[in-house]
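INFO  loader      accepted 1 record
INFO  loader      residues=366
INFO  predictor   begin
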Amino acid sequence: MKRLLIAAGGGGDPITAAMVHAALHGADTPALVLTYAWERLVVDPVPGPRRAADFTGTEPAAPGLALITPATAPRAPAGSLLPRLSGALRPRLGLLDPYGGTLGLARQVAAAARWCGAERIDLVDVGGDIVARGDEPTLRSPLGDALAVAACAEAGLPTTVYVAGPGLDNEVPLPDLLPRLGPPALRLDAAHTEAVSGVFDWHPSEASALLVAAARGIRGVCGTRDAPRPVLLDDTARQVHRLTLDRVLGLSPLARALTGCSSLEEAEEASRAVCGFSEIARERRRAADPATPPAPHRPDRDPAALLDRFAAWERETLARGIAYATTRRITEELDLTAAEARALLAGLRTAGPERHVPPLWRLAAG
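INFO  predictor   done
INFO  writer      dumping tokens
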């Protein structure tokens, strides 16, 4: 018997699902987390989600259920961090393939439940876009979450929805979000983050990293990369809210519009009708116009010059009232290669160990 969880949006949601599972059932309780292979273009340059055929080495646990293992690998040119994540998290990871729409996902969920011997589902979202109305100007990625909600309804298994870290994805403004969620069911603490310790040394998820930071007691304003405003880490940021599936369906016009959907193309059309955009189309446009890669060598990329560039960036960021930054924000705003980021962050740890408050970086004046 295994607990069955669904990471609603892909990306870093399986990390959050592992933490919520640890809080609800204990980290050592056997579990399966179903997740999309739908990751940032910096990880996977191919727009949209991946399907099982985009990987080698998946484990066919049952008809309709493919498990991701550390031996799994994406087929080029696709990329994915799920194989590495499968080795870092205690729950097993199973792949959600949304190309058959809501109906196809429901069949996968049912297959996973039979394999687990699970009689119910925990559906986990970080941030709260799972209850988006669709007209929020800051909404960026509602489709995966809404498909997961609609699929659980179609599968017919009792489902509880958990929203962890309200507002940390910066998609639904917190004053609008909290009334939809109701009172918190629990709060994460540092012990619940042990299950994901070390993941953020290499995984770019910012919302899940902020949740870990909040659970560990870090408080203050943090800047992230793809967000219109910084995030305030306070006690609200470590809350987990429990909702019924019916409640979420009532809040999400997109999830309701996806009822009976039989293809990803049909799901995209529903997203355009409800939200006015398709996030996959946005990814296609971004992939067709990638940023110019950095030059292989410039004088301002020498180690000492990198520290000077960071110091100037740090002063500017502090002046905007931001006290913490994610690794991803530092790396991308300074236009660093992976090797340069490792060298810079190692230098910061050596010069001031107090700067690193995993998984964030504390900015310092002077």
